[in-house]
Amino acid sequence: MSNALSTGTDYPLLADRFRPIFQRIAAGARQREQDRSLPFEQIGWLKQAGFGAVRVPRQFGGAGASLPQLIYLLIELAEADSNLTQALRGHFAFVEDRLNAHASSDQQRWFERFVAGELVGNAWTEVGSVKLGEVVTTVSQRDDRWVVNGSKYYSTGSIFADWIDLFARRDDTGADVIAAVRTHQPGVQQQDDWDGFGQRTTGSGSARFDNAEVEAEHLFEFSTRFRYQTAFYQLVLLAVLAGNGNAAVGDFAEQVRQRTRVFSHGNGDRVSADPQVQQVIGHASALAYAATATALRAADPAQRAYLARFADDAEAERSANIDAELESAQGQVVVAELVLRLTSDLFNALSASATRSGLQLDRYWRNARTAASHNPLIYKQRIIGDREINGTEPPYIWQIGSGAQHA
């Protein structure tokens, strides 16, 4: 059973496989940020090392990591470069879906692809003034083949990937589906046109599909999608935020160690010995610690939901999915506030010179603010409150589009 399911592994041993790569990734993170250079090479290092297969069961050649262990590993990667963790969010979500699908149908072929280093991107959000709930991207059958037509935005990580996890609608039945589309074909065009002020090297641009082919066996009914998917997407963003916070503390601490100029009204002849500066770094470190601990704790019920999928206990699975959704939302509210605070407060440890563009210290706040903006905190807070007061089951799926007055 332990080999057939991803129940966990020796985390220090697992992390030691990737930490030298994380160090190499971190070494160039500041320059990539300044140049807005996409990390194709760095993603390649992770692919070759089998990073994308850490959740695949050991029986099929993966590491068999639990979900909390995956999140911990993604936090470590985000500490090296938070953009890479977010770029791989779509991949690990698709892996998670195939892990759950294995309960009812053999997914060995997909597991083999993941172990071979193949990565999956993401393309769900429609382009333009689409009505709420409307899906313009279509899958249709033409001349005995299935093709996809449409445009997507926020296609995070797809530009680095071998496959795209694409949300579309069948034109014959009207059913919503997931199409696993190969990226390396003439019908797929991708652009790095994300223009946000943070997380700028995630490859989160637009994708266009012009009669892009998709095999029939790579069409999956959306209704079969793993239940805790929204919670999972949020857990990865928690890893992005927590790792980003850890990196900020380390970078600012290094700047304090190197600083020689002091203020006449300061508390010492070295900045590193100034008790108030030490307090700033210490408080930020504590906030980063709390963010990491919260992210890891929030991953526990998602792992329970995964295991319950194989236990033939519908009530246990439902309960775990509710907990996964709620705890990921609770974690989102807290972690976002902690990391946004610490990435701003850390500037109190230095002076105006810390704002120099060459240092790129502002990237930690910009990246945190961007990651924290993906799923509006105010709506998650309301959902949590509704559960606490009225026992209301949280929504598992949500969409974005034009409201009724603009339809």
TrEMBL record:
Q: In which pathway does it act?
A: Sulfur metabolism; dibenzothiophene degradation
Q: What is its EC number?
A: 1.14.14.21
Keyword entries, A-Z = Flavoprotein, FMN, Monooxygenase, Nucleotide-binding, Oxidoreductase
Q: Where is the Acyl-CoA dehydrogenase C-terminal domain?
A: 238-375
Family annotation (Gene3D superfamilies): Acyl-CoA dehydrogenase/oxidase, N-terminal domain, Butyryl-CoA Dehydrogenase, subunit A, domain 2, Butyryl-CoA Dehydrogenase, subunit A, domain 3
The segment(s) forming the Acyl-CoA oxidase/dehydrogenase middle domain are: 131-211
Q: What is its subcellular localisation?
A: Cytoplasm
Pfam families to which the protein is assigned, alphabetical: Acyl-CoA_dh_2, Acyl-CoA_dh_M, Acyl-CoA_dh_N
The principal location of this protein is cytoplasm
Acyl-CoA dehydrogenase/oxidase N-terminal domain: residues covered:
23-118
**Catalyses which reaction?**
dibenzothiophene + 2 FMNH2 + 2 O2 = dibenzothiophene 5,5-dioxide + 2 FMN + 2 H2O + 2 H(+); dibenzothiophene + FMNH2 + O2 = dibenzothiophene 5-oxide + FMN + H2O + H(+); dibenzothiophene 5-oxide + FMNH2 + O2 = dibenzothiophene 5,5-dioxide + FMN + H2O + H(+)
EC class: oxidoreductase
Recorded superkingdom: Bacteria
What does the similarity note say? Belongs to the DszC flavin monooxygenase family.
Please report the name of this protein according to its UniProt entry.
Answer: Dibenzothiophene monooxygenase
